[in-house]
C-alpha cells in the first residue's frame, strides 16, 4: 500500500469515529427506543445462545454474564455450583414463566383455527358429526381452563389444612374423592371430600375425615362396591418393623354422618406388601378383589376370604379388571403386561393361564382399559404411554411428552370427552387427545417441582355428581386447585352457606393400626 493511501485511510477512520460519537450524543429518542427493543430481543435469545455454547468439563456457561464459571464438586462452600442446582434453577425459571403465561386471559388454541364459533358453524352446516363436535369442543374448553384455589373446609375444624396430600382417588361418579394425607408425626390420615355449590356455578369442598391413622405407607387405593356402588375403599398398606402389611376394606360411611350406627363391613386381610389393587365389577366374580405383590397375584373373595394365587415373573405394579368378563390385567416391573381369566382353573407354574401377554420397554406404572375392552393404555417408567390393541398384541398409538424416570405415576382417561391426562415426574400435568394422540395442553404446577410436590389430579365433566361442574381438580402439597371450564367462574361458598347437618363427620373412632 502506498503511504499516501495509508494516511488517507487513517484520516477516514478518524472522521468516521468522530461522526459516530456525534451520532451517539445526538441520537433521537425513537432511535434509542429501537435500540432498546433490539437489545431486549437479544436478551430473549440468550437462552438459545447458551444452548449453543460448547460444554466444557468442570465448567458451566452463564448466559446472563456470557462467560464460563468453574464447578465445585464436593466443595465445602455453603452455595456450591453444581449441575443439578443449575438445572433446577433453570427449570424453576421456566416453570415461573409458563405459570405467568398460563394465568393470562388468552391461551393458545390446541389446534390451528379451532374455536367454539367455528365448530358451532360447522355443526349447523352438517359438516361435523355430533360425536366429533363434542370431542373438539372439550379440547377448546380444556385449552382455556383457569386456575382457582379452593379452601378445604372441615365441619369440626376451623384451622386450614396443613397436611400434604399423598393420594386422591374419585369414585365412579366423581361425587366424592377419597384422600390420603401425610401427617406431621409420620402417619397418614384418611378422608373423603364432598363438593357443594356447583348448582350455583361455583365449587366448594368439605373434608369429612375421621381418626383413622396408620404409621404404614399407603401403596395403592381403589373404590370397592360391597353393599352398593362405591360403598367401600380398598387400601394396600406396607408393613413396618414387626407389623406385616395388610389390605384394609373401609366403609365410606365412616366419613359421613349417614347411618352412623351402622358404618358397614370393615375388614382387614393379611396380604403382605401389596403394590397394587383392583376391584371386580363383573357379576361372575362378585365381591372379588385382586392384589399385586412381589412375583405373584392374589385374587380374594371379600366375603368368604377364599384366595387364588397366580405366580408372576416380576413385581405387579398396576392392575385393572375388565367389566364385560372376569379378566384381570396386570402390569409388571419387568415391562410385561398380561391378563388372567378367572374362569380358568389352571394356575400352575407355566404361563399357560395368561390369556394375553405383551411387553413395554420399562416398568409399568399404570394401565387403563377403554370402554372398548379390546384396547388398553399403559404407562411406564421411561415416560412412554402407549395404546395397545389386545387382540393383535400391538401398540397402535403413542402419546409423546410424558416425563417419568422412576416414580409410580398413574394415568387418567376421560373417554366421553376424548381426553388422556398424566402428571409427570417434572410436576407438569399434560392433556392429550385420546383420538389422535396430539398434546393439547401442558399445565405447570403452582408449586416448585420436587419429589414431594408431584400433583395428584382428578378430571371429570361432572365434579360433584350428575349436575356437577366440568374441570380439573389438582392437589399439590396441602393446597387444592380447581381448573374451571367457565371463564366467569366465581370462587366457591363456605360451609356457613350450607345446612349444618349435611355431610358432617362421624364421632371419632379408635385408631386403625
Automatic annotation (TrEMBL):
* Amino acid composition bias (Basic and acidic residues), ranges on this chain: 85-95
Record keywords: Repeat, WD repeat
Q: Which Gene3D superfamilies match?
A: YVTN repeat-like/Quinoprotein amine dehydrogenase (2.130.10.10)
Q: Which domain of life is it from?
A: Eukaryota
Which stretches of sequence are listed as region Disordered?
Answer: 1-57, 72-111
Instruction: Tell me which SUPFAM superfamilies the record gives.
Output: WD40 repeat-like
Q: Where is the composition biased (Low complexity)?
A: 36-53
In terms of InterPro entries, this protein maps to:
CUL4-DDB1_E3_ligase_receptor, WD40/YVTN_repeat-like_dom_sf, WD40_repeat_dom_sf
Record GO cellular component, one term: Cul4-RING E3 ubiquitin ligase complex
Q: Do the record's keywords include Transcription regulation?
A: no
Pfam families the UniProt entry points to: Beta-prop_DCAF4
> Which PANTHER family does the record cross-reference, listed alphabetically?
DDB1 AND CUL4 ASSOCIATED FACTOR 4, DDB1- AND CUL4-ASSOCIATED FACTOR 4-RELATED
| Protein name, as recorded | WD repeat domain 21
Could you tell me which species this protein originates from? Answer: Cyprinus carpio carpio
The lineage, from the top, is:
Eukaryota, Metazoa, Chordata, Craniata, Vertebrata
